[in-house]
Structure formats: C-alpha cells, structure tokens
Amino acid sequence: MGFNDEFRERTKKFALRVIKLYQFLNKNNEESRVIGKQLLRSATSVAANYRASTRARSRAEFRSKLSIALEEADESVFWLELLIESGNMSEDKMKDLLNEAIEITKILSVSRKTIGSKKTNFSFNVY
Fold first, then answer.
1. How does pLDDT run across 73-103, given as a tens digit for each residue?
2. Alpha carbons 20 and 105: distance in angstroms, whole number
3. DSSP string, 7-21
4. Measured between alpha carbons, how far is residue 102 from residues 10, 31, 42, 88, 124 in Å?
5. Is residue 99 a part of any domain in this protein?
6. Is residue 33 part of a domain?
7. How many domains does the chain have?
8. How far apart are CA 32 and CA 86, in angstroms?
9. In a domain? residue 125
10. CA-based nearest residue to 19, from 123, 97, 119
11. Which pLDDT value is given to residue 115?
C-alpha cells in the first residue's frame, strides 16, 4: 500500500471519528450541535477531496483538490478548538482527535507545497 492509499484511509478514519463525535454531540446542547455540524461537513470533505485528488487527471486538478482538502482540514481544527474552548467538550476527550486534525493539515500543507514545485515528478493513479 502506497502513501496515497494509506493517507486516503487515514482521512476516511478521521471522518468516521468525527461522525461518531457528532452522534454524541447531538445529545448535548444547541451550540455543540451547530459547531458539530460544521465540523462534520469539514471533516468529511477532507476525506472526499483527498480521495478525489488521488484520481486527478492533471497536476492542476490534483493541486486544486489537495488545496480544498487542506482548507477543510484547517477548518476542522478550528471547529474542534471551538468545541474545547467553548467548554462543550473537554480537552482531554478531544486531544487525540484535535492532534489528528492538526497532523492531517500539516501533511496536506507539505504535499501541496511539494506538488507546487516544478521539479516534482508527478504521476497519476488510474483505477
């Protein structure tokens, strides 16, 4: 299994963890449900757009989808921080998920910078 396959699975697992968190938040207060819905959208978008990037037909399409995934990952970090800082979730319970969102954001950021380099050897996956 190559990096693309492993990272595609990692972003999917991240989305699934957020889905489970959202199911829990749905039983809490209105604020956590609203923030949770935003988090749900951004986290699932990370996985969907990274998956789409691995099927890109061109370097430009790959970079575009990667950029969207990066924006959504950063937004996921924001919503997780809001859940913690607003007191709707404890930092202890959210630490691992927040760290995963931060790591995914960093990986996507480095990947986007790398693909932006003209020296990068770019090949497409065909499924």
1. 999 999 999 999 999 999 999 999 999 999 9
2. 20
3. HHHHHHHHHHHHHHH
4. 13, 23, 13, 20, 27
5. yes
6. yes
7. 1
8. 9
9. no
10. 97
11. 80
Q: Is residue 126 part of a domain?
A: no
Q: Which domain holds residue 19?
A: 3-115
Q: Which two tokens stand for residue 58?
A: 């061109």
Q: Count how many Cα atoms sit within 13 Å of the Cα of residue 21 in the half-sphere of its side chain.
A: 31
Give me the CATH number covering residue 62.
1.20.1440.60
Joined together, the tokens standing for residue 95 give 């630490």
Q: Nearest-CA neighbor of 63 among 107, 103, 116?
A: 116
CB-based contact 71:53 (threshold 8 Å)? no
Model pTM?
A: 0.88
Q: By CB neighbour count within 10 A (0-12 exposed, 13-18 middle, 19+ buried), where does 58 fall? A: exposed
